[in-house]
């Protein structure tokens, strides 16, 4: 799972004014009883107002811990979250949306400070490095607070969330354990805030889409249901088997090839004069047609067919036929990042292939690092710490973990015939079952054309399988990468698309 250990989400930039800070912070409720040396949850409540989607909204921000407890009431873990709830009389039709990022091991900083929080960090929109501080922290009129309350969740080991007492954090570091803890938090939040009958949306980015599927399975997979109105998937990874970079898996080349074509077009290596949407469709058609047939034939592929496929693959990806022949028509993403612009002595990014890097030398097989990650991480880390400890009045000595905060991850799904899920790891069926058993639920899928971490064709493949109602899954595409909202135009489009999705419930 090395290739998926750092799936994230990140940043944006826009110009219109939106927010005004109102009052200072106040301590949250500390009446609950706690055992041993465990203090009550650390909570800060502040009051604000702003303009979102053209609508002025007064809201209360609650930044703080919620304790997950054992059956005897002993606190086991503190889940840090930031909730934004509209002030005034409660509208029973107002939705609440629960959001998180991925990793696994990533805090919700990326969606929070880049896309949907009332404040955002402004970094360059045109795939340039974010440079050095100070980074502008601006009002965010693209926040969704005009149509939904929002709760940003940091699972254990991310953000400020941590294990308590004798509980070890690694008890939460696995697909199922993580999903159970997030589902438990959501149930607690609904009870504490009186929102059990509100419309509910669940959303995540990157591994957060994986988490969305597994949390949905925990919420509505039993008799004590928490039914959802919608699932929001941003930069989707559900079928890890199809994308596994192991010898003999031909699907990995198919799901990545259209992203290679889009990247080649963006950097002027292919597709001149063709609209991006049409170019993407040409790549899809080739991947699911002649390319698939050629790869499945393996060593039985004839020379004439090989030559025809090699020529078309070169036309689409911008790689030379000589290179493709040496790679036996099978190019891994890492090799592509290095090879596409080798003649310019540049590499392209993994999370967002619009970004360019310069390696120590030009002879390597893969890049030294991902320029689309190191170009944004400084701005986000500074922004979340400044905003939460300042505007939201949250006081703590803990360090906010932006990404990489969990150890060895337990990837077992459980179930399946004789543990078959250990050999083919796919959570898309959870979404299919959830849709089949809830006629009011819909799925929103956001995909960046230049995202190699979670390629758009991989998302299309995983969500077009048997058992997933196609008429309730909608796809939206953006002209950036994994964190499409780092591009100003895509932040506005993503916000408008999700706002429309929620309003159409």
Features of this protein?
505 residues; alpha/beta; 2 domains; twelve-stranded mixed β-sheet; two-stranded antiparallel sheet; 18% strand; globular; disordered N terminus
Topology:
Blueprint: E1 19-21, E2 26-27, E3 43-52, E4 55-69, E5 75-86, E6 96-100, H1 109-116, E7 119-121, E8 137-139, E9 149-154, E10 162-163, H2 175-193, E11 200-206, H3 207-220, E12 230-236, H4 240-243, H5 251-266, H6 276-297, H7 303-317, H8 321-326, H9 333-339, E13 347-348, E14 356-357, H10 371-374, H11 377-389, H12 428-436, E15 442-448, H13 456-462, E16 473-478, H14 488-503
Parallel strand pairs: 6-9, 6-11, 11-12, 12-15, 15-16
Antiparallel strand pairs: 1-3, 2-3, 3-4, 4-5, 5-9, 5-10, 7-8, 13-14
Describe the protein's architecture and organization.
By secondary structure, the protein is of the alpha/beta class. It has 14 helices and 16 strands. Strands 1, 2, 3, 4, 5, 6, 9, 10, 11, 12, 15 and 16 form a 12-stranded mixed β-sheet that branches. It is globular and about 70 Å long. 49% of the residues are buried.
